[in-house]
Amino acid sequence: MDAAELHNVTVSGPEDGQPLVFAHGFGCDQHMWRHVAPRFERTHRVIRFDYVGAGGSKAEFDPDKYATLEGYASDVLEVVHGLGLRDAVLVGHSVSSMIGALAQVTDPEPFGGLVMVGPSPRYVDDPPYVGGFDEPAIRGLLDALRSNYLGWSASMAPMIVGNAERPELGEELTASFCRMDPEIAATFAGATFLSDHRDVLPRVSVPTLVLQCRDDVIAPVSVGEYVAATVPQAELVLLDATGHCPNLSHPDETVEAIADFLQKQPVG
After folding, report:
1. Hey, where are the domains in the chain?
2. Residue 147: how many CB atoms within 10 A of its CB?
3. Residues with catalytic roles
4. Which of 19, 76, 178, 211 is the S-S candidate for 88 at Cβ 3.0 to 4.6 Å?
5. pLDDT digits (tens, 9 = 90+) for 113-132
6. How far apart are CA 240 and CA 209, in angstroms?
């Protein structure tokens, strides 16, 4: 079984268009890009996929491989190489921002740019670095996830997506979380929330757009500012969007920011 089948890869748009690879966040799948990715199909080759345990992925779960984000980055590279992509721009939501950075640093050749939507290289505070959480809070979050995943999902998803006046967004994210196998979710969460990849950021060698939301409980504004200041060729755009999932809550603003970034980038 090749990488396209393993990760339920879908491809649309002109074959000769610049590739845009949309990578979903924790507890999600490629469906979460449905308001954003199709808007680029007229001009770009649009690629979506599912990580192990998400959506239609058929990849076998290896707890050792996926104990770190490097395991997910290797899957991204398998997808990119399997399609023979060049000058690809990887659009990563949340943890996929850092997974994309790891993939680009590991193998720069296929990539022409990165878009990081709500990135965080480290969630735990390490003064003077502010990640947004202290270590006991992260440990408590992971313990709660492991002990009662469905209950954790129902309480956390609405907080993550924000926009309380639109409860349907929280309900959608809750349902997405609940579709994931609890063991896989616990491993992915540990790899995400206990990671520290600040050292990767200075080694990113392609133009990078950092999209930062206001009032984001997962990745506060200070983290977006840190990422943009540390990646050599980074541009920070502070969206009017609130919450952690602008691809769901504010797709028009998200599309506009990505399109503006793409217009500035040379192809080839």
Report:
1. 3-121+197-264
2. 11
3. 94, 216, 244
4. 19
5. 999 999 999 999 999 999 99
6. 16
State what percent of residues in the chain have pLDDT above 70. Answer: 99
pLDDT digits (tens, 9 = 90+) for 60-102: 999 999 999 999 999 999 999 999 999 999 999 999 999 999 9
What are the average pLDDT values for consecutive 10-residue runs of the chain, which has 268 residues? 92 96 95 96 97 94 97 97 97 98 98 98 96 94 92 88 86 87 94 97 98 93 97 97 93 97 77
The token pair that represents 41 in the structure block: 């199909």
- Check residue 267 and give its pLDDT: 56
CATH tag, 3-121+197-264: 3.40.50.1820
Using alpha carbons, select from 262, 210, 202 the residue that is nearest to residue 234: 210
Residue in 210, 195, 207, 221 with CA at minimum distance from that of residue 95: 195
Encode 42-109 in three state secondary structure: CCEEEEECCCCCCCCCCCCCCCCHHHCHHHHHHHHHHHHHHCCCCCEEEEEECHHHHHHHHHHHHCCC
**Three-state SS annotation for the chain:** CCHHHHCCCEEECCCCCEEEEEECCCCCCHHHHCCCHHHHCCCEEEEECCCCCCCCCCCCCCCCHHHCHHHHHHHHHHHHHHCCCCCEEEEEECHHHHHHHHHHHHCCCCEEEEEEECCCCECECECCECCCECHHHHHHHHHHHHHCHHHHHHHHHHHHHCCCCCHHHHHHHHHHHHCCCHHHHHHHHHHHHCCECCCCHHHCCCCEEEEEEECCCCCCHHHHHHHHHHCCCEEEEEEEEECCCHHHHCHHHHHHHHHHHHHHCCCC
